[in-house]
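Components:
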Amino acid sequence: NAGVMQNPRHLVRRRGQEARLRCSPMKGHSHVYWYRQLPEEGLKFMVYLQKENIIDESGMPKERFSAEFPKEGPSILRIQQVVRGDSAAYFCASSPPGSPGNTIYFGEGSWLTVV
Amino acid sequence: DAKTTQPPSMDCAEGRAANLPCNHSTISGNEYVYWYRQIHSQGPQYIIHGLKNNETNEMASLIITEDRKSSTLILPHATLRDTAVYYCIVRVEGGGSEKLVFGKGMKLTVNP
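Structure:
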């Protein structure tokens, strides 16, 4: 059973470009979470999605950031007009539906560098 | 904000048991305690989680106090590869949402 798959693992973008990060959850998992980790800091929650629905986006910056989890295909975290401060590791996690005691598994992350 | 507090760092000798403490005095009755670890430049690795009872798996044991205000993660025989940042996390629920809220974690260094 493959784990949470994220791609690309490393992405370099110039200021003003767009970055798209993809996350394929584990098989059978319909809940996806995105986290951001700035250098030398802990993980910060960004958004929680279920299939076709955004449940909690309280951690998302108000501008330039968006996320989706369509009925088919991976979840996408999109950052428009990137700035140097967006340079970070972005982690996706997934869990199955059901009880709050389910295990949440993380992917290996996508490292975004803005030059 | 994270509901947990951990010491910033801890050392342990290789082969010894590592006991990692965590305080979560404001935990609610239905909130689970999760432990993850992160080795530099890798994604957080799930270790164990529990609600009230003590839990054990192939990686570790989790001891939760009866009042649930604190817990201890036990690595029974620490190895050099257990050197990592360990996060004790309360899975927060509210407003239809649920999520893991990470704190700063605790750096465990296993020494030869």
